[in-house]
Amino acid sequence: MLKITALFSGMLFSLGLIISGMVNPAKVIGFLDLAGMWDPSLALVMAGAIATATPFFVWAKRRKYTLLTQEKMSLPDSKIIDRPLITGSILFGMGWGLAGICPGPGLVALAMGAPKAFIFVAAMLLGMFIFNLLPKKP
Amino acid sequence: MQVDWLHFTPWSAIIGGALLGLASGLLALWAGKIAGISGILGGLLNASSDMAWRGFFIMGMLLTPLLWLTFKTPVDIQISASTPAIVLAGLLVGIGTRYGSGCTSGHGVCGLSRFSIRSLAAVTSFMGAGFVTVFLTQHLF
């Protein structure tokens, strides 16, 4: 059941990225370019996503067990704002602004056959792999 | 600031966003998982015990574009950055999202939807860095 749920969610997520236009890095750059011709679309993507997801997360938080897989509900609840969170996010933001691609749209653009998306995803996976090799704090 | 009305697509943005929210919300409610793409991918590289659902989620993400191309016309994908810039961007996104425990989906969509203060700090950081980077690359260099 978990596998089917994950497959369905992945398909729906990908469809959302395609329809929203966020698969196109030029549109993402258009949103991040406050000093140029600013395209507010991405703000509405986030607004639409958060407005839709919020009732589900509120419902999920109230439940002891997941609705379909009947496992113990254990969504993250950390409130710690530490240096890795901020430093990592800033590094991610720099990469995001440089190419206009974040992980989800990168995968979708790759599946759509964009050669540069292939290069991006390969470099991103290498980056994640390098992170995994780094020593972890206990 | 000038608004680019020519490229502004409010309806597809809201509808596409709602689908992202639905996908994330259902995965959380049904399976208790966070639809954070960087976290899901990173877990796949870690040989962890929960590889299966991660693999199926990513398969789903790749399947939709293939179905889309089969039945609909291709969508615009304009990547203007040079190849070296793309490589650097990919490395930064890969390391940064793992170090910061999430990206636009995990911290952005899922985190803000469950009112996580930690995710709000992350979103503010990567949005800010994105704005600054685009200002530097588009207007200064």
TrEMBL record, chain A:
It comes from Iodobacter ciconiae. Keywords: Membrane, Transmembrane, Transmembrane helix. InterPro entries: DUF6691 (IPR046513). It holds the Pfam family DUF6691. This is YeeE/YedE family protein. The chain crosses the membrane at residues 41-60, 80-101, 107-134.
